[in-house]
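seq:
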Amino acid sequence: MCEEHLIKEKSISHASEMYGGYDLGRLKYLISIYKRYGKDAFLNRENGVYNRNTKLLGISRVIENKESIRSVALDLGLIDPAILGDWVNLFKSKGEAAIKDTYPRKDYLSKDERAKAIVDQALVEENQRLKAEIEYLKKSRSLTKKLEGVTSKEKANIVASLRAEYPLSVSNKAQKENRL
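struct:
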């Protein structure tokens, strides 16, 4: 839409109509962002990390200096002035302690995605533990066939050789479960 207006010289209202009647005020703001920061402001959104100091600077400019949210948001390169408005409202309602660093939305997981990730991690850990147990049993079985009884030293050698392939935490979990 910004390029339709700036490069192809279409009116703002015409550019808005081309994209389903996009809000004219919002479009004007986006055009200002485009003029100041270029196309990259819209393309590289995964860099949208807003640290606490930047937020507090913006908030203080709005509250103490009485600057408009829109002009401060433009200076900060925010894609939407409502972001700064949210920071100001949070500051007013909960104080400075509520202002924290913000990371891109792609890092956030839905409730279902978080639950699936937890289950997947548990399955991976259990799979590793079971593989380690199988390898231990295979190696100790082959030694028992050779010598009828495996000594503690031989068991320690088996575990030491398995540590190269399996993490120690898996061995510790398996030992704890075997004691129970």
